[in-house]
Structure formats: C-alpha cells, structure tokens
Design a protein that fits this description.
about 90 residues; mainly beta; about 0% helix
C-alpha cells in the first residue's frame, strides 16, 4: 500500500505515403498514485492477490506543425484500476 509517483514521456511519428514524415515533440506526464493491495495464502503453493489504485496527473504537449504557429496543450488525467490474480509456487525446499 502507499503512494507512488508516475512519469511518462512519448512522441508520435506520422508516416504518410507521398508526404514528408511528421514527428511531434515529446509529450510529458507527471502524476501521483495511491494504492492498496494484499495477498491471501490459500495453501502452501497457492495464493490469491489483488490491488485497487487511483492515479491523478497532469500532462502537456507542444507542436510546431500548426500553420498558425506553435500549439501547446495541457490536460489533467485520472484513472482507476483494480486486479486480482492467483500466485503459484512450484518446487523449492522448506
């Protein structure tokens, strides 16, 4: 459980036949994530695990392929995620 920090950076390249390739500048994302999860032992070799989390962040991108000049865009983002799964142990010694 606990908070986490997130960072992502990406860019896009558009390749169109008969046209020059267009590559954007990097877009960036900064965010915080809060999560809680756990593992419950079902047997010596089997466990069930799960997690619930929520992220909130701020992103921005800039481009210079606009005829009117450089365009800049900023936005906030948020997402909710949850998962559960089974964990198996194979072999080993006690």
């Amino acid at each position: 459980m606990g908070p986490g920090l997130e960072f992502a950076s990406s860019k896009q390249k558009l390749e169109t036949a008969g046209q020059p390739d267009v590559e954007t500048k990097n877009s960036t994302f900064f965010g915080v994530n809060g999560r809680i999860g756990g593992i419950m032992k079902l047997s010596d070799n089997l466990e069930i695990s799960g997690e619930i989390s929520h992220s909130f962040g701020y992103a921005s991108a800039e481009g210079d392929n606009n005829p009117a000049g450089t365009a800049k865009s900023t936005w906030t983002t948020g997402d909710f995620s949850a998962f559960w799964g089974l964990t198996f142990a194979f072999g080993g010694s006690k």
